[in-house]
Amino acid sequence: MKTAARDFPILSRKINGKRLVYLDSAATAQKPLSVIEAEMEFYTKSNANVHRGMNTLSRMATEIYEQAHSKTAKFINAKGMQEIIFTKNTTESLNLLAYSLGEKLKSGDEILLTKMEHHANLVPWQQLAKRKGAVIKFADITIDGRLDMDGLASKAGRRTKIIAATGASNILGTVNPAKEIAKIAKDCNACSVIDAAQAVPHIAIDVKRIGCDFLAFSAHKMLGPTGIGVLHGREGLLEEMDPFLTGGDMISSVTLQGAEWNVLPWKFEAGTPNIAGAAGFGAAIEYLEKTGMENVEGHEKELLKYALKRIGEIENVKIYGPAKGPRVGVVPFNIEGMHAHDVSEMLDRHGIIIRAGNHCAQPLMHEMGIGGVCRASFYIYNTKRDIDALAIAIGDAKKVFGV
Ligand code: C6P
Q1: Global pTM?
Q2: Contacts of 3 (CB under 8 A, 6+ apart)
């Protein structure tokens, strides 16, 4: 992708005397200058609290903050900013749901998840099930790393109240059929929740087309700042839910006896939010829109194809994940005879940043029968040259370890 790498200042630095090759965007993406500058501009020109003062600065801050909501709504084709709640990250968005949506669950109700979930879309539901006496069921994964959709459909039934699934796996890269999952939920009157932390940054997402009830994602994985995340929810459902956090700004009136809630989305945004983060997030969305999500997707597809071939050719390297079907730019692999952490450390010596371990998805590791895995993940600033560097460094690591 022509534009990308030079827009990202960090990519011109060296690591251990070598060119930085950043292959860990699934953990967090690097930031273009426009995002860094948007945060700086907010602090240098408009810093004030939002929704709190009839003064010029507060009005400017409020406008920037609200515009970021509108840009997000447009980016995923939501009805409007009333359906966009800013949180700290995907994890907080899913916890919000497990409390606010989960409140209506009763003993014996069922929550349907999958065996490829990140802990963020598993532990909050486990806690909810404990509080309410609900039952959690899991859809299986096929041998080639896809969701067993027939199994998922057969496990959904009269008692199912929530179906929560990842839009794209952070380890396998598998893109799940969110529209079909939402339809299965709708057919049994359950709410659908899509953990789109690894989907929104990489593929064009249209919540109206998918038809899901809720969608969660993080700004930091899509070129934006850390500390800001999104929960998209259907307006009618958000109206029915009580807030998870309470306090300032989320109320319309308060007496000593009680309180009335503010309108959406502010009802779910208690306290001073991450305003500078929202300014940066708005700039990140603008950057992705200018690039075009179809180009982001196309670029990653090409890199993925190249990486699967290039890394797949190396002897004693096992690559995981589906051989066919939609998949984001994530390559999980292990080198026979080497611990994933050792591989990661050896690659670091070459200036190559990957992630190794269980990637916050221990049950999936268990399903795959492995303790950990190396993961190279791509984004718009990566090139085939980065993959060549990875392949050479893997070869070198094997030599050093004699495997
Ligand atoms: N996965 C990874 O290296 P937060 O940390 O709240 O922004 O995102 C949580 C999360 C939820 N769902 C999926 C599918 C994810 O991949 C992540 C974050 C990172 O894989 C950090 S553990």
Answers
A1: 0.98
A2: 291
